[in-house]
Amino acid sequence: MNHVALDGHLSLCPLEIADARQLAESYRRNRQHLQPWEPARPAEFFTEAHQAASLAAAAEARRSGLAFPFGLFEHKQLIGRFNISGVVRGAFQSASLGYWIDHEHTGRGLASRAVAALRSAALNDLGLHRLEASTLPYNHGSQRVLEKNGFVRIGMAPNYLKIAGRWQDHYLYQAILHD
Fold first, then answer.
1. Domain containing 32 — which CATH number?
2. Region of 22 on the Ramachandran plot (φ > 0 left; ψ -120 to 50 alpha; else beta)
3. Which of 60, 130, 137, 155 is most deeply buried (CB count within 10 A of its CB)?
């Protein structure tokens, strides 16, 4: 999966080690915004060195076909992160989708557009049958993004992920990519 242009100024691009500085800056800028939705992060997470190491591992996962990390860029500025991860082949042909948008860019439909593009790429480029995603029950914005893109809520997973320092329930969603 390569660069996906969403319009003249907005694109999804595979994240590379060279993006570590922008990614670290974006995480620092959005630290408070992301805190309720993500695992508790140690101080080193917000450094360029940590992000470079993380992106190096992500590049290996991409080469292995296990994960596809993307940055959402507007005018070459990183304004969000999108991941297709946990790719399972064989009879399952499934993966997980995760994402976030910079606090200054929420409410513009950007996540919905990016998820639509990644859903299409998951089918057409990766040959997947299914994408799954999860949201905290009170993350109504993310639920709207998923539902706009054909994801259906299939259940509730109690104590599913340790988010913001505590185990929290999550709604589970899936999109079947084939008719």
1. 3.40.630.30
2. alpha
3. 130
Q: Residue 173 domain-assigned?
A: no
Strand partners, 162: 167
HSE-up of 151 (CA within 13 Å, CB side)?
Answer: 29
Q: How many domains does the chain have?
A: 1
| Domain presence at residue 37 | yes
**Residue 126: which domain range?**
4-131
- DSSP one-letter code for 111: H
- Per DSSP bridges, beta strands 68-74 and 10-14 are antiparallel
Residue 155 lies in a domain: no
Q: Indicate the Cα dihedral angle 84, 135, 141, 67, nearest 10°.
A: -10
pTM of structure: 0.94
**Which of 110, 103, 112, 106 is CA-nearest to residue 133?**
112
